[in-house]
Structure formats: structure tokens, C-alpha cells
Amino acid sequence: MAWICLVIAGLLEVVWALLMKQSAGFTRLWPSLGTVMFIIGSFGLLAVAMRTLPLGTAYTIWTGIGAVGAFLAGIVVLGEQVSPMRLVAAALIVGGLILMKLASQH
């Protein structure tokens, strides 16, 4: 159950990051409110996951899902630049996440 909460928390991090970008520095009401709501959900589920998962594992997976997810959302939703070097960087993060999961005893 902790892993499911952690993955959902990471996905919510992607949503709040995207909404934060859309809020234009918190000058637009609805994206700003959405950002706060998804931050609360993401942190809440991260806290639940940390009840049983080690801090280093949980936090690394959470930030990794958020980082790679925001990178992909930027490309797909916002039309941000794709380059071979950026793709390699994202692949390295994913590789690190896989190693972190394999190293976890939970």
C-alpha cells in the first residue's frame, strides 16, 4: 500500500508543478488554488508512504517521479524543447529510481 501511495503522491507532484507553471507566479486564481490542493494531496500521500518506507527511498522516488513527470508534461503539454541530452538525463533519473526500488527491502 505504501508504494501505491508513493506513486500517486509522485503523480500529484507532476500535476501541481504543471499547475504552478500555469498560475503565472500565483497571479491566476484557479491554477494557484489547484497547485495548493495538489501539493496538500501529494505531501499527505508521501507522509503515509513514509510510515513504512525509509526516508531516503520514499523521498528519492517521490522527487524522481515528479522530476521526470514534469519533464514529460513540459514536452507534451507545454511544447517544451526535446533534445538528446535532456532525454539521456531523464533516462538516468529513471535508472536511478529503478536502482533505488531494487535496493529497497520493502
TrEMBL record:
Q: Name one GO biological process term.
A: xenobiotic detoxification by transmembrane export across the plasma membrane
- Single GO MF descriptor: transmembrane transporter activity
UniProt-listed Pfam families: Multi_Drug_Res (PF00893)
Give the record's keywords alphabetically: Cell membrane, Membrane, Transmembrane, Transmembrane helix, Transport
Give TM segment ranges: 33-50, 57-79, 85-103
Give its localization.
Cell membrane
Entry GO CC: plasma membrane
Which domain of life does the UniProt lineage start with?
A: Bacteria
- Tell me the InterPro entries matching this sequence: EmrE-like, Small_drug/metabolite_transptr, Small_multidrug_res
Q: Which SUPFAM superfamilies match?
A: Multidrug resistance efflux transporter EmrE
Its record classes its membrane topology as: Multi-pass membrane protein
- State the family named in the UniProt similarity comment for this chain: Belongs to the drug/metabolite transporter (DMT) superfamily. Small multidrug resistance (SMR) (TC 2.A.7.1) family. Gdx/SugE subfamily.
What is the protein named? Guanidinium exporter
The protein's organism comes out as Lutimaribacter pacificus
